[in-house]
# Entry
Amino acid sequence: MSMMGRGSKADVGPLQVRGEVLAVRRSGDYHVLVFAAPGVAELTAPGNFVAIAVGGQPTAMLLRRCFSIHHVDTAGALGGTVEIVVDAHGPGTKWLVDRVQGDALDVIAPLGRPFSLPKDPVPCVLVGGGYGSAPLFMLADRLRERGCRVDMILGAATESRLFGVVDGRRRASTLTITTDDGSLGTRGRVTDVLGGILDQHGGQVIYGCGPMGMLAGLAEVASQRGIVSQCAVEEAMACGVGVCMTCVLPVVGSDGVTRMTRSCTDGPVFFGDQVRWDEVGTVPADCLGAPVVEGGAGTR
Amino acid sequence: MSNVVDMRAQLASAALPSPVLTASGCAAAGRELDRFFDVTAIGAVVTKSIMASPRSGRPTPRMAETPAGMLNSIGLQGPGVEEFIRKDLRWLRERGARTVVSIAGGSVNEFAELANRLRHEEGISAIEVNISCPNVESRGQVFACDARAAGSVIHAVRRHTSALTPIFAKLSPDVTDIADIARACVTAGADGLSMINTTLGMVIDTDTMRPALAGITGGLSGPAIRPMAVRCVWQVRQALPEVPILGMGGIATGLDALQFLLAGANAVSVGTAVFNDPSAPWRIHNELAAALADRGFRSVADAVGYAHREEVTI
Ligand SMILES: Cc1cc2nc3c(=O)[nH]c(=O)nc-3n(C[C@H](O)[C@H](O)[C@H](O)COP(=O)(O)OP(=O)(O)OC[C@H]3O[C@@H](n4cnc5c(N)ncnc54)[C@H](O)[C@@H]3O)c2cc1C
Ligand SMILES: Cc1cc2nc3c(=O)[nH]c(=O)nc-3n(C[C@H](O)[C@H](O)[C@H](O)COP(=O)(O)O)c2cc1C
Ligand code: FES
# Structure
């Protein structure tokens, strides 16, 4: 399967802009935050993310929080709007969902390398775990514009942790749902139904966004079938712009060498067969520059 | 109305157009930040500490946010000095940015080798020697925590560096008497001192009930350590009134930077604040210019050490 270069306009972006909250609405366990962010919508491709400062100024929360871009509207109010899906669980995400219309937001976007699109109009299967489905609807639109058939699978622990069921039904040729507890759709994991969907509709590319374990599963299925997978990962990020080296994971380069690779600038989207999924969170012994003796690594 | 402040700064023989620099490890090699502000406008880009060979760094998680700060345990990930020269240093030179190259090693020899390799490279305003790394020849004892070990590293780097290139020893605050280490570095040939590096800290994840970082401990940075950094600059300025100081630790605004100048720093580095605001170095330059003007200073130099005046004047 041949893929196009990424649809990013990296030379222009990212922008650091003052955004303004337009709306916060609930969706299951999540909140959808809609904000104006001048100039961002035009530059955004599916898979890009935003980094938002939280806590107001001055704040004890120094680090920006990162979110996949769910939806953009160039025609929207105040120079274009952006939507993100927030799972409020810690202090930063809770602060964000407590914003009200008119509040200011300090936004950097679009960040990261977006999904690559297939050159030919081949069938694609889009798989989202929990709020990981957020960027997939924009992606479905781009794929369909190119004549690709889109089938979608959404999975979560339970019904309230699914995101975008209605949206998915509207955009995909088929939507399959799985929940761990069987509260909606098939009881089980997305990987339990993926094989059947691929058989039925002849998917040539798997796109995924969600927990690491799920992405590892998708990449495995793709490699067994000799098809392409593209996975958007979520690693803890301190800067989001490529300067701190906190967000790394072991990725095999085109030269066959494994490097600890930044997921904020070289990702968050990687080809599934590039990531050494079983070794995420470790430094593989054959990684470029891996310590020769255990404990030999320096500090700071 | 406001008088124009002369923002030039002097770090030993290096003349800089601004007293605001980036901090090592918080700006990569400048390229990513150049999308947010003009990296040629600030004092200099201080590059991520480079080692002789490529280095993978530590496993993840490598960071944890803490109140007004963060812990990091990167483990000096980098491409090694050859690729650094070929790609990063070249980009900085072609871009026209002033560059302070930070070097790190596991032995005195590695530091010497690095200095030697950089010796004939053009476009290096100064070398910052990151001695806050473990000495593999001394059971991992950190160079910066031992006056003799720190002195040997600085001596070796000085010997392999052109006399025209100033070298700055970067000090750790995790010592009993920072002025002692500072003196040892200056005696060994350091032209100036950078301070402070991060201070060692730790966070336990209360869900997993294990250390939050894969490296267990990490370096604490950000506004949380600012008072400690200002104190270090103050003490070293008092002990060594003539030695140039590059101050850092939690600088997030122009007034923060002003504190460092008043305490005795000749210039400042902005580190962790960049993660919150990638254009922070240039913003802080402007805020500092305004703060100096407001106080009637005509130049950066006039403000350096000004808080010590009761002791230096009548
Ligand atoms: C590329 C990318 C896309 C993301 N997309 C979404 C999304 O669409 N919706 C959503 O709800 N969340 C998303 N996340 C995760 C989100 O960034 C974290 O949940 C959030 O930062 C947690 O902040 P907190 O203050 O609530 O929690 P805390 O746990 O208190 O956060 C403390 C620190 O850890 C970091 N952190 C904690 N968990 C994560 C995590 N899972 N990923 C990255 N950093 C983390 C935070 O940035 C912060 O610095 C994404 C993360 C990345 C890297
Ligand atoms: C993610 C990160 C990486 C760092 N890497 C280095 C490094 O490679 N070499 C070094 O001398 N200091 C390094 N530092 C320390 C900073 O240069 C600086 O001394 C310290 O963080 C205090 O300043 P700040 O509070 O403005 O960040 C690093 C700091 C952080 C946060
Ligand atoms: S988050 Fe800083 S380099 Fe990726």
